[in-house]
Design brief:
The chain is of the alpha/beta class. The chain folds into two domains: about 1-55, no CATH class; about 75-375, no CATH class. Helix content is about 35%, strand content about 15%. It has helices at about 70-75, 80-90, 90-115, 170-180, 185-200, 220-225, 230-235, 260-270, 285-300, 315-320, 325-330, 350-355, and strands at about 25-35, 35-45, 50, 125-130, 140-145, 150-160, 210-215, 240-245. The strands form two sheets. Strands 6-5-4-7-8 form a five-stranded mixed sheet, sandwiched between helices. A three-stranded antiparallel sheet has the order 1-2-3, with no helix packed on it. A hairpin with a 5-residue loop joins strand 5 and strand 6 (about 150-160). Helix 2 (about 80-90) packs across helix 3 (about 90-115), helix 3 packs antiparallel against helix 11 and helix 5 crosses helix 6 (about 220-225). It is globular, with a radius of gyration of 22 Å. The structure holds zinc ion (ZN).
């Protein structure tokens, strides 16, 4: 193996491509590891830092090699974390650690594939309802999906205050819990705004004039849209239109919200955390969001687009017009290479998920972020 760039984010050769780094590094022997035997070490001539071939591996710093493809397959096919751990003969923590690695690789892959991409279809957005930790902490996973491709452009998460019918004891339990932790006010509007902000980078107004965004009639969406100056202006000038459809309407193919209904149904069916009456619900928000990123990769790039004849390989990404070579290049090394945050251009929500900065209700301690996941 020969290094293509220096892994030190502060080195002038960190962003080298192909052969540019040639001649700026040298081999400095091997070190022995229990997990993969001897490992080649290198020194960068430019910054003097040393590193090894493992520095570039998604398995960097692991003490045991676990089959990441198997974890990805199990997770996206309805298996819960403990079933995957039992099957692979490892601990729950090891499985979550590998999911975190794949979660970051998923964020990196989607960012690489969509670099410079512009959407060519109308959009549908929705809030997928679930809960974090217990039914006292309902949440929305806001999603934005291509209206004809069912390609997932992005998602954001927000924990909400429990509302609706409750018994007297449930109500007193809620106020007891709220003394310890309360979801921030206006969270739903802020999360939807973040979703739209993240999507805007894929909308070139000169290419796709008259973009329609379809949602249900939730009153928060118009507020969130109006809070984004660029969307407000585009709306006033007739280049953007927010159209609504009742959420109670029959959920067939002709329903304009079909794409989000379809994605919601698939999430509910394929991720153990979202099965009805599941014991595998999300206990830790940051961990749960990593799993959703693994699902995004499966849905967008690996799963077959549903309306295609079975003998044609065709993904939701291709249906959205993403060139096949971009998918191939962006997915290269997904299960093997370590993604570097410093080499990616991510939106705020993606950075938050990467850094595990989403808060779990009632949890006081921050999530642990290993050094290898940070920018430097
Ligand atoms: Zn260097």
């Amino acid at each position: 193996m020969e290094p293509l760039f220096c892994p030190n984010p502060r080195c002038s050769h960190h962003n080298d491509r192909l052969q540019e780094y040639n001649g700026y590094w040298r081999k400095i022997g091997f070190h022995d590891t229990l997990v993969v035997g001897p490992v080649q070490r290198f020194r960068c001539n430019a910054c003097g830092k040393t590193y090894s071939e493992r520095t570039f591996s998604i398995q960097y710093y692991t003490k045991r090699t676990i089959d990441l493809k198997e974890i990805h397959r199990g997770l996206t096919q309805g298996e819960c974390i403990s079933a995957i751990a039992r099957h692979l003969g490892c601990t729950l923590e090891s499985v979550q650690n590998r999911i975190d690695r794949l979660g970051r690789a998923s964020i990196a892959a989607q960012a690489r594939i969509l670099e410079g991409f512009t959407a060519g279809e109308h959009m549908v957005a929705d809030g997928f309802e679930s809960f974090d930790r217990s039914q006292y902490h309902p949440c929305h996973h806001n999603i934005i999906v291509g209206k004809s491709s069912q390609f997932l452009y992005g998602s954001t998460h927000v924990t909400l205050r429990r509302k609706g019918r409750m018994t007297a004891s449930q109500r007193s339990m809620r106020s007891h819990l709220e003394q310890r932790w309360k979801p921030p006010r206006g969270g739903l509007s802020a999360a939807f705004r973040e979703l739209m902000k993240g999507f805007l980078r894929y909308w070139d107004q000169t290419v796709m004039e008259g973009l329609q965004l379809w949602t249900d009639e939730h009153p928060v969406y118009p507020q969130a849209i109006a809070s984004l100056p660029s969307l407000r202006l585009a709306m006033a000038e007739g280049r953007f239109e927010h159209r609504t459809h009742p959420s109670q309407a029959p959920r067939g193919l002709l329903n304009p919200l079909f794409s989000v209904n379809y994605y919601d149904r698939e999430l509910r069916k394929d991720l153990a955390a979202f099965h009805r009456e599941s014991t595998c619900f999300t206990r830790n928000v940051a961990n749960g969001l990593m799993r959703i990123r693994l699902y995004l990769i499966y849905h967008n790039y690996q799963k077959r687009y549903r309306m295609r004849p079975l003998w044609l390989p065709f993904s939701h990404a291709q249906a959205a017009g993403v060139p096949a070579f971009k998918i191939r290049e962006g997915m290269k090394g997904y299960y093997t290479d370590r993604p570097f945050l410093s080499k990616l251009s991510l939106n705020d929500e993606e950075i938050k998920i990467w850094m595990k900065a989403h808060h779990t209700p009632l949890k006081e301690r921050k999530e642990y972020i290993p050094k290898y996941a940070l920018a430097s």
